[in-house]
Amino acid sequence: MKHFSSIIAILLTVFLFSCNNKQKNNKPQTEKPIRPNILFIMSDDHTSQAWGIYGGVLKNHVKAPNISRLADEGTVLNNSFCTNSICVPSRASILTGSYSNKNGVYTLSDALNPDSLNIAKILRENGYQTAVIGKWHLKKEPSGFDYYNVLHDQGRYWDPILRTKDNFHKKPEEWDVHKGFSTDVVTDLSMKWLDTIDKSKPFMLMTHFKATHEPFDFPERYADLYKNETIPEPESLLDFGKETTGRSFEGQSLDNLAFRWKQATKDPESWWCEYPGLPFSTVGMDSIAARKHTYQKLVKDFMRSGAAIDDNIGRLLNYLEKSGLAENTIVIYTADQGYFLGEHGFFDKRLIYEESLRMPFVIRYPKEIPAGKRIDDIILNIDFASLFADYANVKLPSSFQGKSFRENLKGNSPKDWRKTAYYRYWQHYPIRPSHFGIRNERYKLALFYGQPLNMTGVSKETTEPAWEFYDLEKDPKENRNAYNDEAYAEIIAEMKIELQKQRELYGDTDDNYPEVQKLLSSK
Fold it and tell me: 255 with 243: CB under 8 angstroms?
């Protein structure tokens, strides 16, 4: 009897254990989300005016079918801004998710410390394959990347020199020379790396083009593009000085670019770069004719250089399709900042003005991001790293000052999303003084404090501090400094308070520079 009872007890235990196991097995299993690949394509200075999708006078002349394709298949940011409009600092902010005062990269002369925490390190530590190919420009050896193949310094357009882990610390004569046009070469190397990766693991590839940076060169296939065309001009092309607009500084005039072309024509060996389409001359022209002539060469060369970028965006998109990677790959195309193409009579960047401040940005991710949409939210370049971390499902480090805009891209912008962008340019020169300011949905306020503040590679000559204010609704082209207009006195006072809040938010309070702090209370 006891033996029989023992058998019953054993069978009952087995039955209950089996049922319990079934219940466990029937519970819904939590699956790890499939993490997307990230292809981050970035050019240098390829300003929104030359993308076509942002409108403007060049809209019907730009050759950019693949940028348009990305816009049609993805989402465009209308108000993406850089935090320091110059190559080296902007790139440092994108990688570190922080402002210049936090990452230590203020000017072109600064280097990104390899020990700095960057998004590549974070993704790599969390299972991503990481690579950067093309323009680096951050001086010291890239860190956080499984693979890098980067242009030496600024890079050259033809037969570019690239540096890898194998030769980065070797003599220049041991660096690699790649025959061809830089934009094409960088794309070739990017696809070559993609051929080597483990397809079962996610990747982040940063493909960085030198184009469209000065000297605005282009491949032979585009030499005749725009040959017999006259390109429309921006309305402020013939702005010859600050007297007519009330701005407080001279700026980098197009006439200076004409001077560069003439000097390079006269003595090509002495100049720092090789410009296409020389010789250049304005002999016999008055100032207006010379300005117009200079603009035509600049804008045509710039769009030709941009057309080669667009070709290579297309090549990368086609590669993703053919390799089966497209569906689970986020594709981003952006530029490290904007650029003046004759607006205000300027070329180059650096300023808080719209053409320089705005970063064109388009993103495609079929699984999650709506096609053919535009977002007006204010996005900063310090947000990019946080977005990548969000997609990779990893925790944000405390050093990141930006925020992920993943929900914004899905049409679910958080109610507390920023309404103000804070900007600071540190590389002081008298014609483009150091300054900081804020931009909201309608207004812009900036203080051109004009101090070198012990920065590297800047002028020691100070300039008279000055405030500028623009109503972007009534004056979208920023042709009238309305700082002294009594009608805006109350708004300006409120914006000065907001400016202080933004500086405190990002820890940019000039504690070591009391001379700047005093200026904030000036009229």
Answer: no
